[in-house]
Amino acid sequence: RSLRRSLLETIDGYSQHLTTSVIEEQIYPQLQTGFNDSHAYIRELTLKSMLALAPKMSNKTLVTSVLKHLSKLQVDEEPSIRANTTVLLGSVAPLLGDATCRRVLLNAFTRALKDAFPPARIAGLRALVATKQYYSPGGAGARRGDRGGS
């Protein structure tokens, strides 16, 4: 656990040297266990590490695996983890693709607006504003003028 903690704390210093294949095949399969770690600090470090790794990850991994973990972390017992999950979702939104954003983000951020922890609510509001291009008043998160195509 101490080695995992050390690697996660310093990921910003070496993540730029990692290739997509190394991240996808060697690092992420091990890293994702940190999302479920019993120690909150490891869960939070794992979450924060995604800011450095997500830009080099495939859309498939982000959508099928990372979002699943983030969904669970959005209801974590630790308030700071819930808030940081919302911040991360807002930050990685451009990497997810329009259809995924329209399907996932509005629900995630409105959930954050109902959180008892004020910083989580603030993060939800900021994330909604930062990703406003994915929503329309017409409903269900579809962009104005979007006829269902990409």
TrEMBL record:
Q: Which Gene3D superfamilies match?
A: Leucine-rich Repeat Variant
Supply the SUPFAM superfamilies for this chain.
Answer: ARM repeat
Q: Name one GO molecular function term.
A: kinase activity
Signal peptide position in this chain?
A: none
The record's annotation in InterPro entries points to: ARM-like, ARM-type_fold, CIK-Related_Protein
* Superkingdom as given in the UniProt entry: Eukaryota
Keywords, ordered alphabetically: Kinase, Transferase
Name under which the protein is recorded: N-terminal kinase-like protein
The scientific name of the source species is Tetrabaena socialis
From the broadest rank down, the organism's phylogenetic lineage runs: Eukaryota, Viridiplantae, Chlorophyta, core chlorophytes, Chlorophyceae
